[in-house]
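Write out this protein's structure.
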Amino acid sequence: MDQKKTGEFLRELRKVKGITQEKAAEQFSVSCRTVSRWETGVNMPDIGIIKEIADFYEVDIRDIINGERSETASGNNDTVSEIIEYAGSESNKLAGKVTAYSVAGLIAMIDLTAFLNAGVLSGITENIAINTLSVKNLISVVIPAAMVVCAMRKEKLEETIAVVRA
């Protein structure tokens, strides 16, 4: 796959459609900079959005990946759609692992907080000159922040899956 060729093809498709990079960015819910990076070959569109781009420009997904219209394109995107679905399922597995590790980390932090509150680690913290209060304050900030990050990742993953399935 040649990113520059794909980028030039995307630029050509956009110009044929008669829209600006700003309109394309709005259409695909990305920034103008992202569209520019696609068209210059710096970045490639995410697999979850390639189907949306192909549908919008009325081309085969393989044409976008190859960076040119193919003479034999049958319009059948079944195989590519299966690949996109597989990528979505792999993302689900990864998100599950990230969530599991995040929950385990949160539980560990909560346990540490309980130990600190119970004074179990007070001797250890004094020996290594850690202020128990500052550790508690740090934990009280880290736990909510970690929960927010988990929620945002889940929301982004759900959006990506919705785009892929559309």
